[in-house]
């Protein structure tokens, strides 16, 4: 009532926090001290905090805690992969008495010049704006293409941070080109020769963000 009168706004969440905190302290600690501070009171306190500050608590739970768990799992995966390789090498050399040969690391190369030439030879118009003055346009509807690429495989563990970063950039460029070519094929199949309001989006998907999702979308058109 005081907050409504002074600042003309409702502070229900804070009021609920004060009420439930007082109730919990009074009921479970003062009146029944044998109950004490245990898992139940801690759980009730957590529920109260979530009700009073939902955005903050949800961010801590969903972003910080879960993100930390997936980061730790990914770190453990890298350690186990390295340990597996070392154990396999020892087994081959000292038990099987065979030379240990690792498969060559296959890292996808990216031919930027070749891809640019391929896209330029599609006889297709890419426009990121909806403004096409002095051109007759037939609207064919919205089109979208999506490419999902693995962010990082075991073969990249031996690379330096700089080399891994360059590889990630090549992955993104390659995915972008694949999206544009796929989008072009879809619009051409519908009788179009261009796309306007072109938008390309990049995002991380999967457990711990282990894959890239690249999407290209826009309005397919026939431009005269």
Description:
This protein is of the alpha+beta class and 224 residues long. It has 2 domains: 2-52, no CATH class; 112-223, Translation Initiation Factor IF3 (2-Layer Sandwich), CATH 3.30.110.70. It is built from 6 helices and 4 strands. The chain has a 4-stranded mixed β-sheet, covered by helices on one side. Helix 2 packs antiparallel against helix 3 (39-52), helix 3 (39-52) crosses helix 4 and helix 5 (112-120) packs parallel to helix 6. The chain is flat and about 80 Å long.
Gyration radius, rounded = 29 Å
Overall mean confidence score, pLDDT = 79
Biggest sheet record: 4 strands, mixed
Listing every helix as H and every strand as E from the N terminus to the C terminus, the arrangement reads HHHHHEEHEE
Assign the CATH superfamily of the largest domain: Hypothetical protein apc22750. Chain B
Overall SS class: alpha+beta
CATH class of the largest domain: Alpha Beta
Kindly report the oligomeric state of this protein: single chain
- The CATH architecture of the largest domain is 2-Layer Sandwich
Beta-strand level of the residues, as a percent range?
A: 15-25%
What proportion of the residues is helical, as a percent range?
40-55%
- Overall shape: it is flat
Task: Please sum up the structure shown.
This protein has 6 helices and 4 strands; from the N terminus they run αααααββαββ. It has 224 residues and is an alpha+beta fold.
Map the helices and strands.
Blueprint: H1 2-7, H2 12-31, H3 39-52, H4 54-95, H5 112-120, E1 125-126, E2 137-150, H6 161-189, E3 194-205, E4 211-223
Parallel strand pairs: 1-3
Antiparallel strand pairs: 2-4, 3-4
């Amino acid at each position: 009532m005081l907050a409504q009168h002074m600042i003309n706004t409702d502070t229900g969440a804070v009021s609920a926090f004060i009420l439930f905190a007082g109730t919990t302290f009074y009921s479970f600690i003062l009146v029944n001290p044998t109950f004490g501070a245990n898992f139940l009171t801690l759980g009730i306190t957590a529920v109260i905090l979530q009700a009073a500050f939902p955005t903050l608590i949800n961010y801590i739970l969903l972003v910080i805690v879960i993100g930390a768990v997936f980061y730790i799992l990914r770190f453990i995966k890298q350690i186990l992969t390295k340990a597996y390789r070392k154990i396999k090498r020892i087994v081959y050399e000292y038990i099987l008495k065979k030379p240990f040969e690792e498969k060559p690391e296959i890292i996808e190369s990216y031919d930027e010049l070749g891809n640019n030439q391929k896209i330029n030879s599609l006889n297709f118009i890419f426009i990121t704006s909806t403004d096409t003055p002095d051109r007759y346009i037939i609207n064919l509807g919205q089109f979208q293409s999506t490419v999902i690429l693995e962010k990082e495989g075991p073969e990249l563990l031996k690379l330096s941070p700089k080399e891994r970063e360059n590889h990630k950039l090549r992955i993104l460029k390659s995915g972008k080109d694949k999206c544009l070519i796929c989008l072009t094929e879809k619009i051409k199949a519908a009788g179009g020769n261009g796309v306007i309001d072109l938008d390309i989006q990049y995002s991380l998907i999967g457990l711990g963000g282990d894959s890239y999702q690249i999407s290209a979308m826009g309005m397919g058109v026939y431009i005269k």
